[in-house]
Amino acid sequence: PVSICHVQENVLQRVLQLPVVSSTCETLQRKYSSTKESHPLMASVCKVYERGVQGAGALAMWGMEPVVRRLEPQCESAVAVANNLACRGLDHLEEKIPALQYPVDK
C-alpha cells in the first residue's frame, strides 16, 4: 500500500488525528480541566507544574537551537526517511487494527 503521509504531514500529526487518540486526548483534557476547577489546591499545583513544563521546554529549545542549526542540513533527509518509514508502519497498523478509526467510547 502507498503511504498517505504527505510532504507537509508527519507521523505524529497522523497519530494525533486518529479518532481513538484524539478522543482519548479530549477526554483527558476535560478530566484535567474539571479536576482543576473542582479542587483549588490541585489547580495551584497544576499551574506550578504547567509553568515548569513551559519553562523547561523553552530552555531546552534555547539550548538546542545552535546544535539544530548545525545539524539541520544533515538531519533533513534522515528525518524524512524516518517519517516515511513510520508512516508506512502506521498505514500497516491502521489496516490491521480497524478499531484505531473509532473513538474510545465505541
Automatic annotation (TrEMBL):
List the Pfam families hit by this protein, alphabetically.
Perilipin
Q: Which family does it belong to?
A: Belongs to the perilipin family.
- Gene Ontology annotations of biological process type: lipid metabolic process
Keywords attached to this Swiss-Prot or TrEMBL record, sorted alphabetically, are: Lipid droplet
Species name = Leptocoma aspasia
Please verify whether the record's keywords include Transcription.
Answer: no
InterPro entries, A to Z: Perilipin, PLIN1
Where mainly located? other
Under PANTHER family, the record lists: PERILIPIN-1
From which domain of life does this come?
Eukaryota
What protein name applies here? PLIN1 protein
Q: Which GO terms describe its cellular component?
A: lipid droplet
Please state where this protein is localized. Answer: Lipid droplet
Q: Which residues cross the membrane?
A: none
